[in-house]
Every structure is written in C-alpha cells, then in structure tokens.
Give the backbone structure.
Amino acid sequence: MTSAPTIRLLKDIDEPGLATLEVYERLGGYAAMRKAITEMDPDEVLQQISESDVRGRGGAGFAMGKKAGFIPKGDMDKYLVCNADESEPGAFKDRVLIQRNPHLLIEGCIIAARAIGANKSFIYIRGEYELQSDILEAAVAEAYEAGYLGRDILDLEFDLDLVVHRGAGAYICGEETGLLDSLEGKRGNPRLKPPFPANAGLYQGPTLINNVETLCNVPLVIGMGVEEYRKVGSEKSTGTKVVSVSGNVQRPGNYEVPLGTTIREIVCGLAGGPPEGREIKCFFPGGSSAPVLTGDESLDLAYDFETMAQAGSMLGSGSIIVVDDSQPLVPLALRLAEFYRHESCGKCVPCREGTNWTVKMLERVESGEATPMDLELLQQVQTNIEGNCLCVLGDSMAMPIGSMLEKFRDEFERHAEEARVRNEGALVEQGAPELAASPRIGPA
Ligand SMILES: Cc1cc2nc3c(=O)[nH]c(=O)nc-3n(C[C@H](O)[C@H](O)[C@H](O)COP(=O)(O)O)c2cc1C
C-alpha cells in the first residue's frame, strides 16, 4: 500500500452540482473518455482495463477485462449493459454513485463500449430508484447535447446510444440474464448458461454486462493509468471499494476503502462499531446472500475478494450487514428466507420449493412447533439447493441460512425449545394441559 489517494469514486461526492455536466467537467470529468477515444485504439483501452485487474463489483468479482475479452471482434451488433438493479438487501452504493455522480457512470459506459466495439448501451436501473433515474436521464440528455453520445462522438467515427431503462422492482432482474430478458420486454427469468451473454446476450448479440461501480472504475483506470490505479488495493483485488455498512453499527453508510483494508477498520473504525455495550455476533460480508462470519474469527481479515472466499464467504456486492448480540437469529433467518421466497422467479424447482420449505421450517422453529429433526432437515434443504439452481438466487438464500445453522445451531435449538415451552405454558394456563403434554410429531 502506498500514499496514492484512496478516495477515488467518492472523491468529489459532496461537491454541489456534481451531477451536472458543467461541474463534472470542471473537476476533470470526460478527460478519460477523450483520451480513450482520441489517443487510444479500442484494443489498447481493453488492454488497460485487463491490466488494471479491476474485478466486478456486482457480486461475483469476475475480472472485467477478462469478461470484455470474451466479446468477439468484428462488425456486428454488440451491446454494453450496465447493471444498476441494486436489489440485494444491504447494498446501497450504486444508488449514491448514480445520484451524486451520474456522469462518471456515463463516462465509464462510453469507454467500455468503445473498448468492445458496442454502439448500443443500456443502463438497467432498479424501479424504486425514481430520483436516481431522473438524475441519470438528465445527465444522459446533457451528454447527448455535448456530443459525447449519439453520432460521431467527438467528431470521430464512433456512434453510441445510451438508454436508461427502469426495472419494475424485481430482485431477479439483477441476475444478468434475467435482466436481459426483462430488457427485451419479457418476464425477467434467468436463462440457462451457456451460452453466456458475451456470446449470446441482448437480442442474442455479444453483450458485456457490468455493475455500476465496476463501470465507474473504468474512467479512473484510463485517466490515471494502470500503474497508478494498481497502487491502491491488494495484489489480486485492485483499487478501492465502496462498502455499504448497515445493521447494528453506530454510523451506517457508504465508505470507500482500499480493497484489503481490515474489516475491523471498516466496521469498528469508520462505521463506529456496534452500539455501546454490545458485541458483534456475526456479520454478512457481502450483502444478505453471503455466508455469515463471526466477529471473533474475522474482524481482522483483509476485506478483499480472495480473503473473503478463503474465509468461506464472499465479498459479493461489498455490503457489510452487522448483527449484534441483542438480535435473535431465527427471526432474522426467517425474514431473509421470506425475501428470497418472494423474489424467486419460480422457474427452477430447487429454488422455488427450497425457499418455500425453508420459510415453512423456520416458521416452525419460530413458533415452537419444530423438532430437532426439522433443524437437520433445514440444513439438508440448504445443501440440496446450493449449486443446483438455474441461477444463484437459491444459493443466495441457502448460503447465509446454511452458515447460520452451522455456526449457531445451539441458538436455533434453544429458540425452538423456548418457544415450545412458552406454548405449553400458555396451553396449561388456558386449561388444556393434556394438549400441552401431547407428543410432538417427529423424534424428540
Ligand atoms: C439474484 C441475483 C441478483 C443480482 N443482482 C445484481 C444487482 O442488483 N446488481 C449487480 O450489479 N449484479 C447483480 N447480480 C450479479 C449479476 O448477475 C452479474 O454478475 C453482474 O451484474 C456482473 O457485473 P460485474 O462483473 O461488474 O460485477 C445478481 C445476481 C443474482 C444471481
């Protein structure tokens, strides 16, 4: 790590009027685009993105340059799609980037489209982000007006259209192929892969899909150059990350840190740690779909893609949700499972049935009807969902719930037992002791 500036994406975020072209350009905006279009050929741009090793900030952490490199060369309709669906519980960093700095994203889209030879691009934005969509549309209109979008950009032979498309509030439309179907006007269901979007994406054409934050890194790479870009972050997780910290912390919010910063610095330093007198019970390091880590084992780990994977979880979208020791885990797990059941598109059985059964079994744990066998079954259901779904929505529930069951099994058992005893007490009070004494279904 060096003394290179570590606040990059959020650098000017509090500058009044940053969402306007005038202020953005005054602060150096669109210089990287000019450089990419007038001084570099598309292959060079792609090469720089690859050498920067910038990894996807939307979930999987896949190297952007590698993915862009899969797009076939040649004269054909190709597409650049920005994923601004941001529906993962705990994630709210794309929202702030779009709202405060929309031209950075537009500039990133133009450079990325140039690199892959796309002439059509789309930003698919979460339906609930109405304010952000309005701001983005106004910024896109300004970019057209300035000649940065449309025909013969910068009077050179490069055309690019950019359309802001509003979603309708479905989590599954953040999954890249569900997003493409939705963009095509169909119901947003994930597609079977392969083929991958790089070969057959939007309207069956080669398509590069990247997250908002990933694309916002592109002007930085081109503007400062690969060497400077790589000075911040760790060897395999380069650059900074905007981390959304929420849950039981004193200062929830978005914090930009070099990848590789310790979780303790982020959660306890920047976000102020848990409320006075509370301890961290566990946290989700990468949004609600990441397996939980417990405070003891993990607060001193480096927050980067490899370390999170080695610890048995993932960095995902870069959203840390903190759970302190005042929070019972069963209602939390139930709320999570209800979310994924609601959002499951229902196309594949393991996800459709698995999320539903998980909710039903957690309801039994919560209400005191569960037997120890239910917890065993609950764990098995999670194992059977993982890796067996059409997309990873099912896994996104199975991984965190499975990890909670594994790490906090005694709490789940205690919760079930306490609820059962409470029920029995209530029955005795209501004058029905024989019902209280009746055997439960399943082994004791
Ligand atoms: C159910 C589900 C929801 C997702 N939601 C989002 C999302 O809201 N935003 C996003 O960027 N990626 C989301 N992803 C990941 C995308 O499928 C895809 O990997 C990502 O947009 C690629 O961009 P990146 O390489 O820049 O990260 C989701 C994945 C799944 C399975």
Remarks:
- Residues 56-60, 62, 83, 85-88, 171-172, 174-176, 209-211, 214, 391-393, 396 surround flavin mononucleotide (CB under 6 Å).
